[in-house]
Amino acid sequence: EQALGDSGKEKLHLNRKKPPAESASGRGRRSADTAMVNGDRAHEHTEETDSKQDGNGEADGGEESNEQEVIVIQDTGFTVKIQAPGTEPFDLQVSPQEMVQEIHQVLMDREDTCHRTCFSLQLDGNVLDNFAELKSIEGLQEGSVLKVVEEPYTVREARIHVRHIRDLLKSLDPSDAYNGVDCNSLSFLSIFTDGDLGETGKRKKKGSEMEQIDCTPPEHILPGSKERPLVPLQPQNKDWKPMQCLKVLTMSGWNPPPGNRKMHGDLMYLYIVTVEERHVSVTASTRGFYLNQSTTYTFNPKPANPSFLSHSLVELLSQISPAFKKNFTALQKKRVQRHPFERIATPFQVYSWTAPQVDHAMDCVRAEDAYTSRLGYEEHIPGQTRDWNEELQTTRELPRKNLPERLLRERAIFKVHSDFAAAATRGAMAVIDGNVMAINPGEETRMQMFIWNNIFFSLGFDVRDHYRELGGDAAAHAAPTNDLNGVRAYSGVDVEGLYTLGTVVVDYRGYRVTAQSIIPGILEREQEQSVIYGSIDFGKTVVSHGKYLELLEKTSRPLKIQRHSVLNEKNDTVELCSSVECKGIIGNDGRHYILDLLRTFPPDLNFLPVDGVELSPECQRLGFPRQHRHRLACLRQELIEAFVEHRFVLLLCSNNELEENSSKPTTNGPVDPTATQNGECKGPLEGKELEESIPGLAQAKELAETLVAEDGSSIDPKSREVVLNACKAVGSISDTAFDIRFNPDIFSPGVRFPEESADDIQKQKQLLKDAAAFLVSCQVPTLVKDCLDHSALPMDGASLTEALHQRGINVRYLGTVLEFMEKTPAKAQLEHIYRIGITELITRCAKHIFKTYLQGVELSALSAAVSHFLNCFLSSFPDAVAHLPPDELVSRRKNRKRRNRVPGGGDNTAWASLTPSELWKNIASEAQSYYHFTLQCESVDQVVEKFGLQKITLLREISVKTGIQILIKEYNFDSRHKPAFTEEDILNIFPVVKHVNPKATDAFHFFQSGQAKVQQGFLKEGCELINEALNLFNNVYGAMHVEICSCLRLLARLNYILGDHPEALSNQQKAVLMSERVLGIEHPNTIQEYMHLALYCFANNQLSTALKLLYRARYLMLLICGEDHPEMALLDSNIGLVLHGVMEYDLSLRFLENALTINTKYHGPRSLKVALSHHLVARVYESKAEFRSALQHEKEGYTIYKNQMGEAHEKTKESSEYLKYLTQQAVALQRTMNEIYKNGSNASIMPLKFTAPSMATILDQLNIINGIIFIPLRKWPLEYCAKVLSYP
């Protein structure tokens, strides 16, 4: 039996070519958390992660047959007893697949054993090997007793122990998350749920839920409020009030022990101050920790009397400090109660753009980490840097024949990648901060290169006039991100034997740094000798190599790259299968590396004016081609895919026409393909409709590709001619098959092509023009259409950028997109997108300016310069004056003498002379020159006025883009008397990091098949597949990842639809926590997760929690995009309904009427959404017994239903029934009133039926507005399921 978990070994520490030293690393608490992630209690993960059977043979029919091996896991978990000194024996559930080390991790995390790190586990007196799997241990079975035996310390173990204790003391302290270290990040969900979720919640409040809940939100959350406070973004967590256990714990100045003391077993000395102000000096010895008699100034290593010798530092401290004992116990209780997702490390660092003022406390481990230059050493393996290149390439070479192998390989790749990204980021910051010596220190600062921790760093400047013809520094700045996109594409194709470099691009303090792993041997030889494929001078001299051609040929189809020939300096023909810049180097390790992949994708002719090249009319109409900053503008991979897809549709259409005409002799080639030649869609809709009108496009594609065997032999001559003509018409490179590929060297300056390929080059040029035309005439309108029908719903700059990128539109087209929106007839319904687009455009222009502005600032003036820039950008204060640091004059004189300063050592104070009007002039001219968009605004207030922007949103966008972290407090942007920011408000500046995200392919296939099943209405099966996907994702990524987040969200939704509300709640809670931790606390995705969680809370009868969550979502949404957004209508309908349920009618109306207004604006007054909004408002009026208003709204709704659905539709009937009912109620009320007027107080009054809404009806309405409808599962119509589950 092959077991999934079997090859997995440990969940977290991938034991890869590292000494076993790594085992119980100081990150103990993190690894243990990973271990317990999927079950909420410590050891249930074993069943969950390892035991789900992949019993689903037909999970993914498309995969090759070896997918079919059904992996059965004989995983019968069993229980062992653990006996630790000083605690009662306890049971622990384990699985045969795990390693002994995982039990260590669990013990280091458990409340009662967490203070032990240096111990072995023994079974019947035999010590178990840490790296053995439990199933391989003789005699270990159900009920075995494992003894925890204290082992003697070594210096390494003592350090691990101290680090672990410090981690335990800091476990509730958020400062690591604010400082963006160790992959910590913030999460605030628990403050709003207050522990009400899941099991705990059910016990607390059963039945008494309806007791008074205070439902009134703070003023700034109510509809129509103009106030946008910043402080609520990070609500204060009661748990973070630090419980002080010690005042000081640090390494003593007496370290290291002198020789004679080493021979007594002294390992190191600690200096500790307890809360009671007792100063003690502690010896860590091989036997444990004890008090010695040293003081600050006299060294006396003799044991004190009593010495309190204890194996664990915690035991020692508990004896000498009552406060420590009490607080440490309380702290561990709290630590264990927190949800594991609040404390597990994320795979990549997330930075927070706001933070409170945190007191800086003494911390020995932090101080030691900073100065012992733990460069990229794996924790506590001093003297051994990691060979990043070797690790990155070895993991790629792991076998991948079956699922367990692939999981192991992907997990290894992912782990090394996230470690590499972290090390590269740290190195890049060290380089810019001037803490790394250059390898060419004699040259001027811009030209310097650095090596640190086996990573090579270079700055994004055009140092050797390398890019002179391509746009100088602007090209040198764009090249690294293009190169990274190339690396991403090639590693995505994942061809065996072809290697790319680990690449990370870091923007920090105005500089762009590229970090790359180092090809073995590259530093010893000149570049000219090593390059055996490609060109080092942009195509003047070119070489090729058979092996490289063979390897690259395998990538050419997926990447749509055409194999082509170019001429070298001797006019010889050289064959290539990539752009000329792409260089092949064989390393000393014999591997074939490719680097400089900046032109993997073809050039974008709209931004590349070439003499004598005419673009298609629709491009010219929009003012293309335009001059760009550099000549490296490429099309995106997504655009190439979409273009090829589009051409395929054309092929099918022209094929159909040809089939009909093929009876007549086709002398004139295909029937006028020029109609569709230029790649334009006639209207923004046509492309979409084509797809819809051709059922089963994908099947057709396969059919066409099989129909045409490679050599075209399988088809009769007549249809061959048809295919040939059709392929010609759409620009395919092969006559018999549909195969469009691009030559990336077309229009590269300096590249020459041989005569015989002139024809082909012409075709390629046409293809590039068509692609450029396709982008502006098809993709931009498609984007706008998707925004109009709300299938794309960006909320902030990042989600807008993502929407552009998904459709293959580069951000440099932002101005074009905005202009297109201005000209759209339905402009008003695009207002939200337009506003986000303008915000994005302005903040990107400001970012460009900020980049060069920062390069001239010396370190001591950094916070002053950043606050000055923000004042000029956002403050209404007209004459923002910069404060130069007071010591400016003193340092000026000294500095003149040093020619070689760190890159950030600009001598100038030019930044101080920037004024708001000058900055806004620059922003406007940047918008004009980069985005070709006219702003016509001279100040921030004009922009805010003209486009309806929010200053707080602008602040968030610029901070996130540039890595600024500001103090969380209320800023007065609009004061005309004093600037909004002072230098004290700038807390930090973080790097902005781009890297490759390795994927979990198998897990993703499972996820997709699960989604497909669900859309066909097979919910149970879908649910199983998605659970399986979740296990595989966990296996590859560990516990925290964006993709796991979407998996959990879908799972929760399925649980909910299948009626398992508690399970839905638990999965959605994980999704929210994960989204906060991995994407950020105010990311649009997090806002959506909050909304879903609120719905499941309501269904679980936790009304006050549901409201708190909805209010939180509304606050976040106001902060990132303001009130005027279609998504706000959904949110407000949710809030209004819940308030209606708790009988807060007036408040409920405020939200529901706001939702009605927004729906009417964005969906048009005749939309069904608006009808539903009217109905919801009518119901609240009915509950208030205001029947006239109720009738008015219901009539509106009725009219919409009647016009849209017809009289006979059930919606229309329901509405008409409800109208009758309201009329009766109104009449009854009127009668009663008349009765009262007539007879005064002795009137006989009929009691009126005032209906307080039932929870069930409210829940039904909530389900409807959130797109969930329950139908007996047999009869699910397909399109319905698709609608429910394809929601964002």
TrEMBL record:
Q: Which family does it belong to?
A: Belongs to the CLU family.
Q: What is this protein called?
A: Clustered mitochondria protein homolog
Where is it localised? Answer: Cytoplasm; Cytoplasmic granule
Function of this protein?
mRNA-binding protein involved in proper cytoplasmic distribution of mitochondria. Specifically binds mRNAs of nuclear-encoded mitochondrial proteins in the cytoplasm and regulates transport or translation of these transcripts close to mitochondria, playing a role in mitochondrial biogenesis.
Which keywords label this protein?
Answer: Cytoplasm, Repeat, RNA-binding, TPR repeat
Q: Which SUPFAM superfamilies match?
A: Hypothetical protein c14orf129, hspc210, TPR-like
Q: Which GO terms describe its molecular function?
A: mRNA binding
Q: Which GO terms describe its cellular component?
A: cytoplasm
Record has Transferase as a keyword: no
Read off the Pfam families from this record: CLU, CLU_N, eIF3_p135, TPR_12
Domain named Clu is located at: 366-608
Q: Where is the composition biased (Polar residues)?
A: 664-679
Q: Which residue windows does the record flag with biased composition (Basic and acidic residues)?
A: 40-55
Where does the record place the region Disordered?
1-66, 200-229, 659-682
Q: Per the record's keyword annotation, is Coiled coil included, yes or no?
A: no
**Gene Ontology BP, a term:** mitochondrion organization
